[in-house]
Amino acid sequence: MSARYLTTTLPYVNADPHLGHALEFVQADALARTWRLAGDTVFFSTGTDEHGQKIYEAAEKAGQDVHAYADHYADKFRKLGTALDLSNDAFIRTIEPRHYAAAAEMWRRCDAVGDIYKKAYTGMYCVGCESFKTEREMVGGHCIIHTNLQLQEITEENYFFRFSKYTDRLLEYVSRSGTVIPEWRREEAVAFVKGGLADFSISREKKRLSWGIPVPNDDTQVMYVWFDALTSYLSTLDWPEDTKGNFKKFWEKGRTAQVAGKDQVRFQSLMWQAMLMSAGIKNTDQIFYHGFINSGGQKMSKSLGNIISPYDLVKKYGTDATRYMLLRHINPMEDSDVTWERLDEWYTAHLTNGLGNLVARVMKLAETYNPAVNIFIQPAPSKVIDFKFNQALDEIWGEIKACDDLITTKEPFKLVKTNPEEGKRVISETINTLQKVAFMLQPFMPETSKRIQTAIEENKKPENLFPRL
User: Fold this and answer.
1) Domains and CATH numbers, the chain
2) Is 302 in the active site?
């Protein structure tokens, strides 16, 4: 038994939540629930990143006060957590006073060891990434991530962080097996370090961008949004005050993990880790990177009209069905393609005609013939520990298929009439398998798991778990 800390990245509050956010949230939630089932104490955090140029400009474009704008979208992300039945212990907003205090302390610690300095700089800036871009991060004058945005040439005097100072320590960190999952993302991080690390800007002139956390002892500058936002992984634990002891328990003495998108390797596994090294704080033990979700072979975008909202999925299929499809049918580490047609197919084939039908068949037999059931505890799926959510669910659906095959082969509804003792034994076997399935489903489909367990305890066929579309 151990203490575990887990956080998602903090999405920007400049637009509605998208399917990629939902994927990251339910992956993290499945991990947290699995660890709790194993007896670990877990601190699972999500939240919102609310400073920076993108948000300020989006609020201006909408004709809204930036605070009101941030509140509106932060609430949407908080509600998404409810819609997805997340079991998070905290929801941190980067506009909270405790976060301001943590960001200022992070700055002071890095400054105290000589890792912050001021200089004039001219560079190509991507508003989408909220960062300056090097030549290897540009293609045709555009950011390789936000190809639709024009890079801006900006000259100003900012504070910089001595990223290059930590080249050797970062290389040692990312060279350790298991610090970055999957392996090819770890190799990507190693290659980035070996390619040379340039010191990065960690502030902006207040006259150009006022929406940010003030730099300690310099009221002409605000913190660069990434320096600010990354510190949220500590402020959610009430660092540096740590009045509840969460930082000491879950970060210093516990095992720490983060879930992030594949475009975050540089920020999460390098920049953030260098900041922690500078501040004298333990590095993150493990960071898992998931792929992107496309639709119809193309990136989701408003202009293409192929955006699929996670709220729409929950409305159409329900919370647990949405969680199931994201965790089983979206590759946990590679890019995946999703369309409404595929979602309908997955729902009907594997939930309505699969799990839902099996529960109805087994519990009708149980209700009619009332066989004995052995209550047992099954260990949590090991594949989740390896971030292979899809394979863990494949194992569960293997149990479902085996149970279906048993019913088809043995025909217990007939057998119980010709050989009552053997018929009831087969029915008990199917109920025991269903109980095993219910237990294994807990991290992925918690409400469905409860409904199946309740049906078994009450020995009663439940209402259809997954109605037909």
Assistant:
1) 3-290 (3.40.50.620), 339-458 (1.10.730.10)
2) yes
